[in-house]
Design brief:
The complex is a heterodimer of chains A (363) and B (523).
Chain A (H helix, E strand, L loop, with lengths): L1 E3 L5 H10 L7 H15 L2 E4 L9 E9 L1 H4 L8 H13 L5 E4 L9 H9 L3 E2 L1 E2 L12 H4 L7 E4 L5 E4 L4 H14 L3 E10 H7 L1 E2 L1 H17 L4 H9 L2 E16 L2 E10 L7 E7 L1 E7 L2 E5 L3 E6 L16 E7 L8 H7 L13 H9 L1
Parallel strand pairs in A: 2-5, 3-4, 4-5
Antiparallel strand pairs in A: 1-2, 3-9, 6-10, 7-8, 7-9, 11-12, 11-17, 12-13, 13-14, 14-15, 16-17
Helix pairs in contact in A: 1-2, 1-9, 2-5, 9-10
Chain B lengths: L3 E7 L3 E8 L2 E9 L5 H14 L7 E8 L1 H8 L6 E8 L13 H7 L2 E6 L14 H13 L4 E6 L7 H13 L4 E4 L8 H13 L1 H17 L6 E4 L5 E3 H6 L7 H14 L4 E6 L4 E7 L2 E2 L1 E2 L3 E3 L2 E3 L3 E2 L2 E3 L5 E5 L3 E7 L4 H4 L10 H7 L16 H22 L8 E4 L16 E2 L7 H7 L3 E10 L5 H18 L8 E9 L7 E10 L11
Parallel strand pairs in B: 1-4, 4-9, 5-6, 5-7, 7-8, 11-21, 21-22
Antiparallel strand pairs in B: 1-2, 2-3, 9-10, 11-12, 12-13, 12-18, 14-17, 15-16, 19-20, 23-25, 24-25
Helix pairs in contact in B: 1-7, 4-5, 9-13, 11-12
The chains are: A alpha+beta (363), B alpha/beta (523).
């Protein structure tokens, strides 16, 4: 177990936003929320998956909705606590730990706010190894574990508890509620035992995010290319370097959806890359050819600093580099691809691992 | 008769001025900034017009760049107490206004924040209704504290500004004399960043009135009838009246001007620009002739904003920086500022400044060198080394790769830079380097902006964007930009889901160089 204080969150928020693949919420607002909770309630105890008792009751805390909304309609602060209390009442037993559903700027830091406010430990793990736009896109789904009962709360005081027949229905119903709540809500879901956490989740995501953030920071200081660091730590490939030429973005059906076009510079000035996103980047098309797709990680980083750029921050003229990296191997199975593969998102293409696409291109 | 342009840079230490005839510098002067600002500008202009043999009637335009507003925030001085009203309850309570501000700045303007009802959802529904009584109570409290400036922000105001406007009306009725700054007029989406910019704008309103009155008085005193413009953060110009209401728009115009001046003077398109002033040194990067911009998380004085501005590193080292030996030399960050020509040793004063060190080391011939000839040479050498080391370190921090890049040195304090800097292969001092900033102001760019609600129904998005971009470019050209240089620098699209027919608010900004040919100057 280790203790994380207010200042221990800087590197973590940076690294988690890289893993957030454009989504997962604004890292700045996420960091401030967690820091203010820690200031008010004291530091957070973080436990590893190995330290978790098998009969622990672990519930994920997250924000749900469109990141474009979160940067405007900042939470009241009580939402996630009310969601937790409602779920605890419904379950009829005390929740012993919280954890992250996904890695991302805000969704890696919200659990710190919950852990601080409720004085429960935080489990260092997540359910995606990145961020995905929908709630059923969590590894526990592949293990037949249920996302519901889940609780959802808004800033006005509304709380709903949802119990569904499967995780796709959890997403569907929760999404409708989220839209009515103004496209941003706080949720508590995936009530799992310690044993189930060990079996189905990815251990050590917070550590990974923190070490990634620290490496980026030291690369900047030492004038090494921070993007090389991201590439080597995640085993990724560089897809493109260029300037944002167009961003077409809408808050629609509870998500930030759209497309971003990058134009190459200098020697590559006749090349282009198109990114399509639904909160997170889903697909990258370079000069008309698909070069990376979900579930692999597609990350947009500021070229000079390696700072992750979220889909809501993307802005005309930004100079960015796009890096793709392999996802957790469980997502690459047939069962995994049925949940998060390109076809689920409506692209009529087969998933090919990003390292194979690159290898095919260079041979 | 030929019309010329006058560029003025009002810094914390020096007021520089140039007369530009097209792209040629016809005259240049450097004088000390005065506490009232006006006297310094008048003195600079008088000697400038005399030196350049220019009649006031020949002046076609006066462009003024100033770092006063940025410095006021950075130093947390001369800011007025400011109240912030945020409309959004019950949302946003977790992160109140100024949540991430440095304590020094909060103390300077006071922590007078009012979270009130209001705000909109992304689709235009109100989060809660505005409560006029609540706002009147806030106004009464603000009035009782004698606070003269109010910033108002509302959730999603770039999508729907009605609550900010209504709240402003209520507050203004209760408090007719307060200055009000509204967030939807100042920033873009992202509540905290937009609100931060609005609060900074609000706390500068009083200083803006004084400084801009000073500018106008100076120009009037010399009977110059030409229009007066002020430089903004992206290198374009704005009117004095606009600046009075939006002083925050001048942020970072100093480095932008000096970098653009350095690009013109040196002809180098890719380099690090080191601008050594009286109090600080600003280091920025030129890429392809344009200042390299910061994108995510730009901070001013430790406050996060989402302005477009050059990526600049500022260190507290300049010609007026105080030098102490303890026993090792320390330089700055405090400076004698505009009193350099009174308080520095070489000017007959009794403070040891960085300028005195440069003179003692034989790097410059200014003032009375005999007044520093008794300084022990080992102390001088050690101070020179510290200055060189700090500059080299700062240049290195701004470099984006380990490749050698040329360094262009400009600014009045550039005598501090010896001919060799560690890790720098090529060091250039272009002609007129001390007044690069004023030159940058004189060649200020012309912007054209479109901010309109478009209906997307029955139109392809590309066509609407092309139309908006073309309009912005046309506006820039109509305002005097040379068509060949105009380019779109910013596009922002805000879908307005609450309006029918797929309405989208589109903002486009295009920028181009002033048409600067000799023929043009004959107009």
């Amino acid at each position: 177990m280790r203790t994380v204080s207010e200042h221990g969150l800087e590197h973590l928020a940076l690294g988690a936003a890289v893993l957030g693949t454009g989504g997962g919420g604004d890292p700045y607002v996420g960091k401030l929320l967690a820091q203010s909770a820690i200031r008010q309630h004291g530091p957070v105890n973080v436990v590893t998956v190995d330290e978790l008792e098998d009969d622990a009751l672990v519930v994920s805390s997250a924000m749900m909705g469109a990141p474009t909304v979160m940067v405007e309609k900042i939470p009241n602060g009580d939402e996630v606590i009310r969601a937790f209390k409602a779920l605890e009442d419904y379950l009829g037993q005390p929740i012993t730990h919280t954890t992250s559903a996904e890695a991302g700027g805000m969704n890696s830091t919200i659990p710190f706010a919950v852990a601080a406010a409720l004085d429960i430990p935080l489990v260092d793990a997540d359910m995606m190894g990145r961020a995905f736009p929908e709630l059923q896109m969590c590894l526990p789904t592949l293990y037949g574990l249920s996302a519901s009962p889940m609780a959802i709360a808004d800033e006005k005081g509304n709380v709903a508890v949802i119990e569904t027949i499967d995780n796709l229905w959890t997403e569907r119903l929760a999404r409708s509620v989220t839209v009515d709540m103004g496209c941003s809500a706080m949720i508590a879901l995936y009530a799992l035992t310690g044993a189930q956490v060990k079996e189905s989740m990815i251990a050590g995501t917070l550590q990974l995010a923190e070490s990634l953030g620290r490496s980026i920071e030291s690369a900047r200081r030492e004038h090494r290319d921070p993007i090389d660091v991201v590439q080597s730590e995640l085993g990724g490939v560089r897809l493109f370097e260029g300037k944002v030429a167009d961003v077409n973005r809408h808050t629609q059906a509870g998500f930030a959806r759209g497309e971003c076009q990058l134009a190459g510079r200098d020697a590559g000035k006749d090349t282009s890359l198109v990114l399509r996103f639904q909160n997170e980047h889903l697909i990258a098309i370079r000069d008309g050819e698909v070069v990376a797709t979900v579930p692999d990680l597609i990350m947009v980083l500021e070229t000079e600093t390696g700072a992750p750029v979220t889909t809501e921050e993307l802005r005309y003229g930004f100079r960015v580099t796009v890096v793709a990296a392999p996802c957790d191997p469980r997502w690459r199975t047939d069962e995994g691809l049925a949940v998060v593969g390109p076809r689920y998102f409506g692209y009529d293409i087969d998933y090919v691992p990003v390292e194979e696409i690159t290898r095919a291109k260079s041979s | 008769m030929t019309a010329v342009r006058v560029g003025i840079d009002v810094g914390g230490t020096n007021t520089d001025a140039v007369v530009m005839d097209g792209l040629d510098v016809r005259a240049e002067v450097k004088t000390a900034t005065t506490p009232d600002v006006t006297t310094g500008i008048v003195a600079a202009l008088r000697s400038l017009l005399e030196q350049g043999q220019v009649d006031t009637g020949q002046v076609g335009a006066v462009m003024i760049g100033t770092t006063h507003f940025t410095n006021a925030v950075v130093e947390a001085r001369r800011l007025m107490p400011t109240a912030t009203i945020r409309l959004g309850l019950p949302a946003t309570r977790s992160l109140p206004p100024m949540v991430d501000w440095p304590q020094q700045l909060r103390d300077a303007i006071g922590e007078h924040t009012y979270l009130c009802q209001g705000g909109h959802e992304f689709d235009g529904r109100p989060i809660s209704q505005l409560d006029p009584e609540e706002l009147r109570r806030a106004a009464a409290d603000i009035g009782s504290k004698r606070i003269g400036s109010v910033a108002i922000s509302s959730v999603f105001s770039p999508v729907n500004s009605e609550f900010e406007l209504q709240a402003a009306e209520i507050v203004q009725t209760e408090l007719p004399d307060v200055a009000i700054s509204l967030s939807h007029e100042i920033g873009r989406l992202s509540l905290l960043e937009r609100e931060n910019a609005t609060i900074m704008n609000a706390c500068l309103r009083d200083l803006a009135r004084r400084i801009l009155d000073g500018f106008e008085a100076a120009v009037r005193e010399l009977a110059i009838g030409a229009p007066v413009y002020v430089s903004q953060n992206d290198g374009t110009l704005m009117s004095i009246d606009y600046t009075r209401r939006y002083p925050v728009a001048t942020f970072a115009s100093g480095p932008t001007n000096s970098m653009r001046g350095a690009a013109l003077l040196s002809g180098v398109r890719d380099c690090v620009v080191v601008d050594v002033g009286g109090t600080t040194t600003d280091i920025g990067v030129l890429k392809g002739g344009f200042p390299h911009e910061a994108s995510v998380g730009v901070e001013v004085g430790g406050v996060r904003t989402n302005f477009r501005m050059p990526n600049v590193l500022s260190i507290g080292l300049g010609g007026g920086s105080l030098v102490r030996f303890d026993p090792h030399p320390t330089i700055g960050p405090d400076s004698v500022g505009y009193e350099l020509t009174k308080r520095a040793l070489v000017f007959g004063g009794d403070e040891l400044t960085a300028t005195d060190i440069a003179v003692a080391a034989g790097q410059a011939e200014i003032g009375d060198a005999t007044r520093v000839e008794d300084l022990p040479s080992d102390l001088v050498a050690s101070a020179v080394e510290v200055i060189g080391h700090r500059l080299a370190e700062a240049v290195d921090r701004m470099k984006t790769s380990t490749e050698p890049v040329p360094v262009v040195v400009v600014g009045g304090g550039s005598i501090l830079v010896s001919d060799k800097l560690d890790g720098v292969v090529e060091l250039l001092r272009p002609p007129h380097f001390p007044v690069a900033n004023a030159i940058g102001a004189a060649i200020g760019q012309i912007g054209g902006e479109v901010d309109r609600v478009f209906s997307m129904e029955g139109h392809a998005r590309e066509d609407v964007l092309i139309e908006a971009k073309a309009d912005a470019c046309e506006k820039a050209v109509a305002a005097g930009a040379s068509a060949a240089t105009v380019e779109v620098v910013d596009v922002e699209e805000v879908p307005l889901a609450y309006l029918p027919s797929n309405a989208v608010r589109i903002r486009v900004k295009a920028i181009g160089d002033l048409e600067l040919t000799r023929d043009d100057a004959n107009r």
